[in-house]
Amino acid sequence: MKTSKVYRTTQARPNTDSLVKPGELVDLVELTPLTLADRRIYNQLLENAWDDIEKPVSHVIAKSSLRGSHNSNDRVGESIERLMGAIVKVRTTKDGVAAIVRVQLLGGNIETERRDGILEYEIPARLRKVIKNSTIFARLQREVMFALSSKYALTLYEMVQKRGNLKFKSSERFSIKELRGVLGVPDGKLTTWSNLKNRAIAPSVIEVSELSDYIVEISPIKTGRSVTHVELKWWPKDGNAVNAAERELSFSKVGRKTRTKERAGQGESFGEPLKPRPAWLDRMGLPLRAETYETARLRYSGFDIYHVEREWRDWAKGKGDPKDPDRAFLAFFKKFAEANPV
Questions:
Q1: Which end of the chain is less packed: N or C, by CB atoms within 10 Å?
Q2: Phi, psi of 110 (to 5 degrees)
Q3: For residues 111 and 80, is the Cβ–Cβ distance under 8 A?
Q4: What is the rounded CA–CA span in Å between residue 127 and residue 102?
Q5: What distance in Å separates the CA atoms of residue 96 and residue 114, rounded to the nearest whole number?
Q6: Which residues of the chain carry a pLDDT beneath 70?
Q7: What would the DSSP string read from start to end of 153-214?
Q8: Using the 8-state DSSP alphabet, how is residue 251 labeled?
Q9: pLDDT tens digit string along 231-282?
Q10: Contacts of 77 (CB under 8 A, 6+ apart)
Q11: Tens of pLDDT along 27-42?
């Protein structure tokens, strides 16, 4: 009897548009909080070392490639020091049993002080072993990684990219404590659900839904009166929504950040479940797919989705059943929104 060959993360290759990150390093828990710049730089260090990531060797990278839009190397040095001091908890398995590995993200390094100098660094041995045994990974689009404006958004993006291609799973439940740990929310910060939602979750959901290939939703789950868990849901966008994400990436980051703040402040597209479909609309026809309603909400904020659906169904009477009702509804919604701007 043949056994299927295990595909390991190290067999996946980065390319000009994307890089690979082991799944164990996506859902890690920071014991030392990192910044957005730290996370981006670490992803670049992993990519640069990828061909020899399993080997006990030093890796070399030009500091200029880590600076981003900054003219100074100071921030690079500060990030490297935080990564060296960062201890993380990585969930893995040992001998078939669930286990937690506590490890530093970055080993010893040498930074030449010239402006056009290099950084020579090492991946800790224990972490190399985790990466070697990894079989799940996230493929991160380089353009999206640099466009996201907060570490919470980047982490959420990585979480969804890790899970997006799972065949039989499109949601996952986290306790508030687990979510805070994975997002890297510092102890003592955003301690209430309201603050966590408004400052970290809502803006991140909006950004990731706008810029990535997935629509994302995070719904609160209560035990009694308190929010104790959340459910993360994701589903791939249709072609039109993917094109919209590509257009959004081409816009100014400053303008995009302002729009995200405004939408998050209004509680828009945060991912609270849609209100129940009205009974009178149920009598007009079977509901569309949940993804279709969510796509409409993200594309056409400010509209009453069910009102537009009634308009569509009234308009479609006598025209025959469409081959693809969901696509037909979204096409109608686009024309409706253009004709009735809010």
A1: N
A2: -130, 130
A3: yes
A4: 9
A5: 48
A6: 1-4, 68-74, 238-274, 298, 301-302, 342
A7: HHHHHHHHHHHTT-TT--EEEEEHHHHHHHHTPPTTSS-SHHHHIIIIIHHHHHHHHHHSSE
A8: S
A9: 999 988 866 555 655 665 655 555 555 555 555 554 444 444 567 788 888 8
A10: 111
A11: 999 888 899 999 999 9
State the residue for tokens 């816009």. Answer: 251
- Looking at every residue in the chain, the average pLDDT score rounds to 85
The CA-atom distances, in angstroms, between 285 and each of 47, 130, 278 are: 50, 52, 12
Token look-up 């909400």 returns 297
Strand partners, 16: none
* Cα gap 9→24, rounded to integer Å: 10
**Rounded distance, CA 43 to CA 296, Å?**
33
H helix intervals, 192-304: 193-196, 202-211, 239-250, 253-265, 279-282, 290-299
Q: How far apart are CA 16 and CA 178, in angstroms?
A: 33
Rounded to whole angstroms, the Cα distance separating 150 from 256 reads 12
In the chain, the N- to C-terminal Cα span, in Å, equals 63
Query: What residue spans in the chain does CATH classification 1.10.10.10 cover?
Result: 148-273
Bridge-partner residues for 171, per DSSP? Answer: 233
Task: Name the token pair of 153.
Answer: 């958004």
Sign of torsion, CA 23 27 30 35? Answer: positive
Q: Give the single-character DSSP code of 5.
A: P
Rounded Cα gap, residues 78 and 81, in angstroms: 5
Distance from C-alpha of 183 to C-alpha of 38, rounded to nearest angstrom: 14
Looking up tokens 């009598």 gives: 283
Torsion of Cα atoms, 15 then 256 then 186 then 126, to 10°: 0
What's the topology of domain 148-273? Answer: Arc Repressor Mutant, subunit A (1.10.10)
Q: What is the secondary structure of 326-337 as a DSSP string?
A: HHHHHHHHHHHH
Asked whether the beta carbons of 89 and 28 are under 8 A apart, the reply is yes
